[in-house]
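We now fix the convention by which a protein and its fold are recorded. Here is one such record, which you should read through line by line:

>
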Amino acid sequence: MLEDDLKRLRGLFADGQSVAHTDAALVPIAAARNPASIKPLLLMLNDDSEDHGMWSLVHAAEQFECMVYITHFIETLPDLVIASRRWASIMMMRVLNSEEYKLELVRQLRDASVSSRSTAALICEDINQTDPIFLAKTVPVIIAARNS
């Protein structure tokens, strides 16, 4: 059922449907509250889109409890940075802007895969290059990613 709902949602994006159609297609996915939806939702984020429906995807993915969301976010990072580097940075900044989520990210990075850790560090370094105001927030993530 989740896979069918995700397939329908992907089709709407491919057809350039309206945000209203996207939001309607997200209703059953969000209502199911299945953490397995986090990765596919994040991987639908698209740098080539003018944020058309992208924020709806973000909100649906972020609806989960902190620990659950961060677990799936970390697992998704290596694929997300390839699929959509801009949205990977945006999603990381959203995590960094929450002290609870940032601390959970740092905690979980210690046990994450090498590719997830290196991707987290890369994204944080990119953020530092474009927006140095994040430096204090990114340093703990970079240290956790590199010292694990």
